[in-house]
Amino acid sequence: MELGEATLLADKFITSILFKVHSLPIGDRSEWAGEWWCNRESRIPLRPALDEGQRHLGQFASRRRTDKRRDRQVFLDISAMVDDGGQGRCPALAGNLCSIYETRPLTCRTVPMHYSRAPSTLQSYLDKFAGTPGYKCDTTSSAPIILDGNRVIDPELRGNREKAIAQAKADRRWKEHLVNVMDDDDRAAAAGLPTYDAVLLNSDNGYATLVPMLIAWRIASKESLLSREELRDVCQKQAILIKSRIAGNAAGQTSEGLLDSLAGYELELSRESSAQPFTLLTESSPPPFRL
Fold first, then answer.
1. Ramachandran angles phi, psi of 285, nearest 5°
2. Whole-angstrom Cα distance, residue 227 to residue 195?
């Protein structure tokens, strides 16, 4: 989900910052461009699909760069990743029902037309989604039509996609602060962030990059995007969720990362209680980023 939504739902989900890199061909004449287009399963030709991909990713990207040497455009996407405790299912599920349905994030409200997907790819994704065994999708002729060509016509789905893109744009200033810190090796290390180049390298090796969400909230507080009271509030909510997760785990199955996260939140709360000034440069910063 977007960072702003993770903040609003800090009492529902344990989250981390997810750095993900998307690459598009620069032009439409390379062999890679053809492979990219086939894998995309777009309903439009290659050149328009590339243009659409650039426009769509540009709505979320915190940084866009051209790498001519490798014939690619690189888009850095920053979002919040939910920790499912290794269960492979949403932690908000109660049985097979959503326990937070009225306040569920937009990433859920746009299923199966997720807002990260460009319009020309939605039909292919919808077909696969509806054909997944166990999913109860009404595909009869009497079912309401939600997609017409490349256009989402269901008003609720269309509206939620628009809201999600608006949320991503609203978070842009926050994400830019994160990337600015990542451009300086010393500042990144002090904050517990990877460098921008490290994220690109991880991506080239087939990995996305995760770091503690506390880092994003600390930076938001430093840049006056989050008040000290709001920072304390999200730290309290995350600490409560993590303690509950630890208490519910079988003996010996609590991950080191979860314990590290709890220590980070409790440290931040102790700082707030003693009214110590905020600083990114501290020996007690959250642990280095993990893959």
1. -60, 160
2. 26
Residue 184's identity, in one-letter code, is D
- Report how far apart, in Å, the C-alpha atoms of 140 and of each of 145, 146, 147 are: 10, 13, 14
Parts of the chain with a pLDDT under 70 = 250-254, 274-291
Sequence-distant (≥ 6) Cβ neighbours of residue 197 within 8 angstroms: none
Give bridge partners of residue 204 from the DSSP assignment.
none
Position 228, amino acid: R
What is residue 253's predicted lDDT score, i.e. its pLDDT?
61
Q: Which pair of structure tokens corresponds to residue 44? A: 């439009």
Residue pointed to by tokens 């290794």:
86
Whether the Cβ atoms of residue 49 and residue 41 lie closer than 8 Å to each other: no
> Given this model, what pLDDT does residue 274 score?
67
Residue type, position 65, single letter: R
The C-alpha torsion from 110 through 113 and 114 to 118, rounded to 10°, is: -140
- Its pTM stands at 0.88
